[in-house]
Amino acid sequence: MPILFYISSLVAILATIMVITRYHPIHALLYLIVSFMAIAVTFLSMGAPFAAALEVIIYAGAIMVLFIFVVMMLNLGKQTAQQEKEWLQPRVWLWPSVLTLVLLAEMIVLLLRPSPTDMPAVAVDARQISLSLYGEYIIAVELVGFLLMTGIVGAAHIGKQRKKSLHRFLQTTTT
Amino acid sequence: MAPIHAHTVLVVAAILFVLGLAGVLTRKNILFMLLSVEIMLNSAGLAFVAAGARWQQPDGQIMYLFILAMAAAEVSVALALVVQIHHQRKSLDIDQLKELKD
Amino acid sequence: MQQYLYLIPALPLAGFLVLSLAGRYLSRNFIAGIGAGSICISALITILLSARFLQSPPETGAYTQVLWHWFSVEGLVSNISLRVDSLSLVFICIITFIGALIHIYSIAFMREDRDYARFFASMNLFVCAMLMLVMADNLVLLYLGWEGVGLCSYLLIGFWYETPGNYRAANKAFVITRIGDTAMIIGLFLLFKELGTLYIPDVLARATQHFSSGADGVTLIAILLLCGGMGKSAQLPLQTWLPDAMAGPSPVSALIHAATMVTAGVYLIARMHTIFELSPVAMQITAIVGAVTLFVAGCSAMVQTDIKRILAYSTISQIGYMFLALGVGAWSAGIFHFFTHAFFKALLFLAAGAVIETLHHEHNIFKMGGLRKTMPVIFWTFTIGAAALAALPLVTAGFFSKDQILWYAWSAGGGHPVLWALALAGAFITALYSTRLILVVFWGEMKTTPGHLPSRVMTVPLVILAFFSVAAGWIEWPHNILHVDLFSEEVQHVLPATVLKEGLPAEIVFQLIAVVVSLIGIYSGYSLYYGQSPLLQQWKQSPTVMSVRDFFFSGWRFDQLYDALIVRPFLFITRINKSDISDKLYTAIANVSMLLNRQFSVTQNGSLRWYVTGVLIGILFIITLQLLL
């Protein structure tokens, strides 16, 4: 399924370019979802169906929904888009683009140095993954559990709506 | 049907990564920067999955799984921060958050 | 007895520690009890020890006690250990006995002072340091005591540090003695380099084998040690600190002049006598320094008006006699003069302190007068002290010791007629100013009304000292009059006997000359200062005499000389080098660091994108390196 791979990766790259150039947050988010979907297809074409499913469900589904919630909650609409337009002047993006292009060129050179190897198109299915995950990676799984737990607690703590407050270290200097 | 080269996938991942990096560097809005960070994390995941597929091992996908979990935690905390910053400053301009300046 | 040796310096040290640590919580009576009591017990132990020593001398000639091992470096083994032979014994007796009397006197004298505990703490430490100096069995420990004495003199001269000028006097004393100390420590280094030991008996034993007589090395060492002695003992040209040291309280002056500090130089030379004997040049220099000093200081004492300054110059002059005696090789005579001088000089200072205290801190003798009737005890004791200073024949201790020195100044191995003439002139001057002091202070009309008279605590030590000022001389009579020489017999175990020249007139001739000269001195003092002498009035009119008087009054202008020669050029150099050149280097380093800090802190601008750019550039750098290599 190389054709599938090439098409989907092209879509992913184009969608990503659209993401970083959009002014309106919702547009950018929608393009990002497209990009994630395309990457899910590339996973499929590489024989990783489980990863593709996770990509769609968690990335495109859960995480992007979080973003959309926030955008809605903060009511970021036309005004933000206008501001983004003002901020994205050529002199702002020119130098970063040059630098990142140089980085890309160097990475591609590095990647293409050894002779290309083919990938066997045999799928690694969910069974293998779960056996390995709950076998040798069991400790890592538990650690990830901790991480998610702290993420929840941290988000709940930080996200609490409080009166405007500053840390005591910053109070004397700024207010 | 010619199989996919492993390098091709990695090049795609590199392109995505660089695009994300460019996004982080150019955007001033915190929300867009977070999106760009997501792109970069995703491209790293893509590289892991490609490596796993190359060797026919599940480890690549497991790493992807961990990245995913990490991204989820990171996004939840970061979005809470965004909400808080917007609440306190009525702005998402990263250049206004300079209290750590020397 | 030997095992209690350590108590002699340890008790004053304990007193110092208690008073300095807990002094502010103690009552005045308790402070006085500890301060004076510690020294008194030391003195008692010393008296018992010396009685034992005289009864049955130890076989080695010395009591020794090794307390603990201090350090050993590269062949230099230094112990905290005590060694008391007859020379040390003389010094310990004087230090503890007179020190104890001075402490008792101070109980009353310092009664009103705010820093009672600080005073007694410093005094105790002073005595302790001096005892360490004379009891040390190696030169390193001796040097420890030596420096301790310097430190305590600094603390006590500047005791009333709130009065302007006193701290200056303290600094002066410290800096000038330091010049001598530096010379001395260099001498000790050389001694160690040459002989490989600083243990005193070994040094003395090895010196005779190692050096030939008059060798350059031993001369250099002897001169350097002499410089150390000159600094501490206020001999020319390092004598200028002593008159200023009168800024301290009177008991301190008594302690410095009689028992401690200034006699350290005498002790050092007597202790190192073998080194000095090996170098005739150094001996000659010692004698010349002593002779010149006694004359110069005597002239200055003649015209001073401050009662304590008169006594200070007279101390310099008397120590000059001791140096002269040591220099001509009359070792025991020098030590004997130290012995007698300690009594009458302590007496004079304490009595002068009592006079000053009674007259509301009046120092000028011409504002005193007529005190004979109001303060009879002080008058009599002071007169006995002054008579001893003037060497009144046969009845005072000063006569016996000074007479010996005068004789030896010519007749001893290193003697010379010029030295004798200077010493004789000094004797005349001493008699003159002693008479002047008595007449001006105690006769004539009363110019200042006395306050409350000194208490018994102050007068009893004076009486004891007065007794010894008379009696101390009787243990050593001139050979031709009475065959009593208890002192020199004892000291001769340690110090070599005096070599006499041949073919000189009989001793009695010298003695008669000396007696006549001191009597003439007393008579001329009497004729000048008793009542209104026309000659004195005439002199006061004459500009020549007055300019000579001013010259003497300023201490032969030594202070001005040093000021012009050393102090001013030094200040000039410091002014040039005000912004220290070597400091520039360090400030430059600091400035460069601060500049870099400012430059780098620009990068810490709080902008997240800037940081990300930094990371990106870093990645690019690393990858480029990997590509190129």
Automatic annotation (TrEMBL), chain A:
GO cellular component: plasma membrane
Subcellular localization(s) per the UniProt record: Cell membrane
Organism: Chitinophaga tropicalis
Protein name (Swiss-Prot/TrEMBL): NADH-quinone oxidoreductase subunit J
Species classification: Bacteria, Pseudomonadati, Bacteroidota, Chitinophagia, Chitinophagales
Transmembrane segments: 6-23, 30-50, 56-76, 92-112, 137-158
Pfam families for the chain: Oxidored_q3 (PF00499)
Catalytic activity: a quinone + NADH + 5 H(+)(in) = a quinol + NAD(+) + 4 H(+)(out)
Domain of life: Bacteria
Protein family per UniProt: Belongs to the complex I subunit 6 family.
Keywords: Cell membrane, Membrane, NAD, Oxidoreductase, Quinone, Translocase, Transmembrane, Transmembrane helix
Xref: Gene3D superfamilies: NADH-ubiquinone/plastoquinone oxidoreductase chain 6, subunit NuoJ
Magnesium is among the record's keywords: no
Subunit-structure text: Composed of 13 different subunits. Subunits NuoA, H, J, K, L, M, N constitute the membrane sector of the complex.
Annotated membrane topology: Multi-pass membrane protein
EC number: 7.1.1.-
Function per UniProt: NDH-1 shuttles electrons from NADH, via FMN and iron-sulfur (Fe-S) centers, to quinones in the respiratory chain. Couples the redox reaction to proton translocation (for every two electrons transferred, four hydrogen ions are translocated across the cytoplasmic membrane), and thus conserves the redox energy in a proton gradient.
Gene Ontology molecular functions: NADH dehydrogenase (ubiquinone) activity; oxidoreductase activity; quinone binding
Top class in the EC scheme: translocase
TrEMBL record, chain B:
Principal location: membrane
Catalytic activity: a quinone + NADH + 5 H(+)(in) = a quinol + NAD(+) + 4 H(+)(out)
HAMAP family: NDH1_NuoK
Purpose: NDH-1 shuttles electrons from NADH, via FMN and iron-sulfur (Fe-S) centers, to quinones in the respiratory chain. The immediate electron acceptor for the enzyme in this species is believed to be ubiquinone. Couples the redox reaction to proton translocation (for every two electrons transferred, four hydrogen ions are translocated across the cytoplasmic membrane), and thus conserves the redox energy in a proton gradient. NDH-1 shuttles electrons from NADH, via FMN and iron-sulfur (Fe-S) centers, to quinones in the respiratory chain. The immediate electron acceptor for the enzyme in this species is believed to be a menaquinone. Couples the redox reaction to proton translocation (for every two electrons transferred, four hydrogen ions are translocated across the cytoplasmic membrane), and thus conserves the redox energy in a proton gradient.
Subunit structure as annotated in this protein's UniProt entry: NDH-1 is composed of 14 different subunits. Subunits NuoA, H, J, K, L, M, N constitute the membrane sector of the complex.
PANTHER family per the UniProt record, alphabetical: NADH-UBIQUINONE OXIDOREDUCTASE CHAIN 4L (PTHR11434:SF16), NADH-UBIQUINONE OXIDOREDUCTASE SUBUNIT ND4L (PTHR11434)
Name this polypeptide is given: NADH-quinone oxidoreductase subunit K
Organism name: Chitinophaga tropicalis
Automatic annotation (TrEMBL), chain C:
The NADH:quinone oxidoreductase/Mrp antiporter transmembrane domain, residue ranges: 136-429
GO biological process, one term: ATP synthesis coupled electron transport
GO molecular function, one term: NADH dehydrogenase (ubiquinone) activity
Keyword Transmembrane: yes
Membrane-related topology note: Multi-pass membrane protein
Pfam families from the UniProt entry: Proton_antipo_M, Proton_antipo_N
Gene Ontology CC annotation, any one: membrane
TM helices/strands, residue ranges: 6-23, 30-51, 87-109, 116-135, 141-161, 173-192, 212-231, 252-270, 282-303, 310-332, 338-356, 377-400, 420-444, 456-475, 508-530, 608-628
Domain NADH-Ubiquinone oxidoreductase (complex I) chain 5 N-terminal residue range list: 70-120
Keywords in alphabetical order: Membrane, Transmembrane, Transmembrane helix
Superkingdom to which the source organism belongs: Bacteria
Compartment(s) of residence: Endomembrane system; Membrane
rRNA-binding as UniProt keyword: no
Protein name: NADH-quinone oxidoreductase subunit L
Gene of this entry: nuoL
